[in-house]
Amino acid sequence: MLYNRRPWSGMRHITARPALATALCLAAIGCGGGNSQLSSYAEFAQFVTTTIDQAQTAPDLPPSICVAIGRRGAPFYTHCVGNAALAPRVAASPETVYQIASLSKQFTAAAIMQLNTVNPPAVSLDGLLTDYVPQMDSHPAITIRELLNHTTGLFEYTNLPQADEWGEFGVTPDEFVAALVPTPQVFMPESAFQYCDTNYYFLGLIIQAASGDAYDNYLRQQFFDPFKLSFTGYGPVLGVLNAAGYKLGPGQTLVPAEKVDVSALFASGGLSSNVLDLVKWDWLLLGGSILPQAAVEQMITPSGVPDYSTGIPSTYGFGLFSERIYHRRLVSHTGAVSGFFGFNATFTDDGWSIALLTNIDVDDDPQITNLGPKIIKAVCRPDSYFRNWC
To answer: Are 332 and 324 in contact (CB under 8 A)?
Structure first.
């Protein structure tokens, strides 16, 4: 399912999780021949590199793909193909920074959990949205926990009539809140799950109210600077190569994608990063360096509330999807903004993780959404020849 298909929208979540992916044709190099022998690193790297390169189906499409695979925060494989920018051409590298859209949600959720675990807590998960945003008294029963796991029933703000204008010119918190106050409740809180970017925009406002600091400053001071996530930030990251975003134009040629004002993305999707920092972040978070392990467990435990559309139990925790793959727990998220797509997933048992970033509008190259799950399936399934590298 693709959320928020407005062309500017920064927080589309592509539900391309490995457990639900369709059967994939896994090419070459002994894959599928059983696990009776161990593959060498050279064989593993050749296979993954070939899989990534084959996703570039035509010159400049997608402009670039960067992938890092690591364990416990340390990358042991990286590969980039294509260009971070086309005019002039600048080759992508693992250091290249991309907009990560909804991958930002796990950072926002971690900040809320950090404020919840200080003594005394600055934020209670059972506290109300109206405790921090009193103007939302038209929706009085919504809790912080329900914002985190998308069970509020709030209206999706990217579907508001003024959303396109916000994407082009920006929006202030007061304008955002005023626009949401009169919106209808889709369902009663905690009665259903529906992925909704409005929830995480409000969580950003709560972080600011509870900490007394701006959202971007809080993340920088608590996460980015102390843990040396030097290629991660709110909006473009200064002093490094930021990839340009592209989409298909007339005649199937690539043209620059519309730029989205970061204030319209905010805590739902306003961060940028690279594949190296994402792999590092995965284990900082899941390994307990950022939060107490009990708080991490809360983040990666699904609510199980039925999906509003399908009735299927939700696999969403706080900022991350969590499900069982090959008898292991995998946490993941995707993100899409005009001109960019990202995928990030980690097995919680040994910290094996993959980060994939690209600078093409996912609507123009939909096979990119399955590339990360395809690599996971090829490498990590029990009978894979490359299983020793997962």
So the answer is: no
